[in-house]
Fold this protein.
Amino acid sequence: MDLSFLKKNWPSAIVAREEISKFTGGAISERTMANLDCLGTGVPDRFRISRKVVYRVDSLIAWLESRSSKLS
């Protein structure tokens, strides 16, 4: 599934974990990402800027695409 359209309207090359819900239109929450990270179950590449965990937009989109499927 192609989710590259998410990148067009995002003003930055990174997404802070606290902005995940906004970036995904509410499909994924900050808490979900934190839980997946804590459990060590496949989250996109991330890094810290000060105290904030951030994701590269391209990595986040690739991760979302790998987890999404079309409904028939």
